[in-house]
Amino acid sequence: MKKMKNKKRNEFVKQRLWRYAKGESKSLSIGLFLSVVRTALEIIGPMIIGYILNNYIKLDMDIRDFMAIAKLLLLYLVIYVLCGLFSNLALISFEQAANKISFSVQKDVYKHVTKLPISYFDNLPAGNIVSRITNDTNRLKTMFQLILADMTTSGIMIICIYGMILVVSFPVAILFLTLVPIIYIVFKDLRHKTWKYTTLNRSYVGAINASINENIQNMEIIQVYNKENHIKEEFDHINKNIFKTGLEVTKVRSYGGFRAIDALSYVGTILVLLYFGMGKITGAYAVTIGSMYISIDYVTKIFNNIKTVVSRFGELEQSYASASHVFDLLRLEPMEELPEKLTEVKGDVRFEGVYFGYGESDVLKGIDFEVKSGESIAFVGSTGSGKSTIVNLLLNFYCPRLGNIYIDGKNTKDINRNSLREQMAVVLQDPFIFETDIKGNVGLDEGFSDAEIEKALMDVGAESIVKRGIHEKIFEKGNDFSQGEKQLISFARAYIRKPRILILDEATSNIDTETEKIIQKGIQKLRENCTTFIIAHRLSTIKDVDKIIVLNKGKIIERGNHKSLMEQDGFYKNMYDEQMRNQ
């Protein structure tokens, strides 16, 4: 089963590589043509020397012989200058193709990643994804460079030169075939071991990138709890595995590749010398010094090119492993592009018998409620009761396992996600601030004017931010702003888009009560003329909402407004009284 899965995966990788290669067929064809020309020149060079040895090197040489040799050596020089020129031109063509292919892969992978369902990102660390998009695609570029610039050229050289050995000295060519099984065994062993260790190495590199990304983002927690040594030990463990697998790859390529091919090269030269030596001693067949030189030169060139292929083989396997990693992303099914688009949304929302779970067990169990356009609804309950899950389903990040969600009577399973989210705005508990200026954070580069940005900030109560200037640069995570200021920027970001459905996900739970009073102005502005969903931590902030849904373990246990729920003297009243006592 595993072999079948790997076979399908390899087939998919090959198809993708071929598709990208076809996209750069012009540059690749030019490179291949120049490589063939270079090979032809490489073949002609030794024949000139062989011709000189057979026809001009003798005891009674005269000036005409020297002149002929000089002309032939000049031709030899021109050939190898041209050989170097065509080699460089071929390399440039292959490099251009490799860079363009890498660019296309990175663009396609990044575009594909943005279309993947949120559930995919729940299961893979961000550092791992970054590693695939950057490191692995760069290795993929190296793969095309190695295959085309070195391995393809070397392959052409081996085939063409062996063909010339067949013409120049057929018996030598037959003798050479006796070494082919040994070369095949070396290649097979090298490929198996290289694939094994490079695959392990690749997984460890992905793990260390994910670890570094996570640790840097949470450095405050690590230092507060004095976990630097623990984190270092984890890092060292992964790093040692990378070192060990890298060392094994080096050993395999060194001892299994270079040394074995070097030894076979010496054996090949000895076979050529034995053949010509036996011919000279026995007189059984004609032997010339020129043909011996050509045969030795060709055999040496063949083994040099085999050694080039072997030396690049480890890097090729690493690059192929990276290609598999990259294309694993492209194999993941993106979210289906739904045809129906929302226009002129009123904001009526209805949940009907909704069941949903992130794993095997359901987080939501039979959720039913309805909210009309312009109304506000709040969700309260203990941690893990399913409040944020309702919001995730409303935003269509996930689909219900059972049941349906309707907006203006249309099932969200059929609505185009982009058109749905264009009608919504979200303010999260922890606002995300981009490393750009205030204007960029509010407008998100959607063409809003300075005046519109400033008005949005003023309307939500962010006068202090406007005074600082909307073109002020915001640095890493907005650490030069208070939590309240970052939340006001987030409110302005939502407000300026005039959403028909507003989601406030515990938007005031991380700020002090003084700042909350300022932000309440922003909340009131935001709630005007739109349907509002509120996930509430502080129950005092939702006294004026139209409906309150009380959740416990994924089920609705109470519903009503603040007054009616307090009169019920149930779960909600107990929560509210507890908070009031704590305050």
From TrEMBL:
Signal peptide: none annotated. Keywords: ATP-binding, Membrane, Nucleotide-binding, Transmembrane, Transmembrane helix, Transport. It is found in: Cell membrane. PROSITE patterns: ABC_TM1F, ABC_TRANSPORTER_1, ABC_TRANSPORTER_2. This is ATP-binding cassette subfamily B protein. Residues 349-578 form the ABC transporter domain. GO terms for molecular function: ABC-type transporter activity; ATP binding; ATP hydrolysis activity; ATPase-coupled lipid transmembrane transporter activity. InterPro entries: AAA+_ATPase, ABC1_TM_dom, ABC1_TM_sf, ABC_transporter-like_ATP-bd, ABC_transporter-like_CS, P-loop_NTPase, Type_1_exporter. It is a multi-pass membrane protein. Residues 30-318 form the ABC transmembrane type-1 domain. The keyword Calcium does not apply. The lineage of its organism: Bacteria, Bacillati, Bacillota, Clostridia, Eubacteriales. CDD domains: ABC_6TM_TmrA_like (cd18544). The chain crosses the membrane at residues 28-53, 73-94, 142-164, 170-187, 260-278. One of its GO terms (cellular component) is cytoplasm. SUPFAM superfamilies: ABC transporter transmembrane region (SSF90123), P-loop containing nucleoside triphosphate hydrolases (SSF52540).
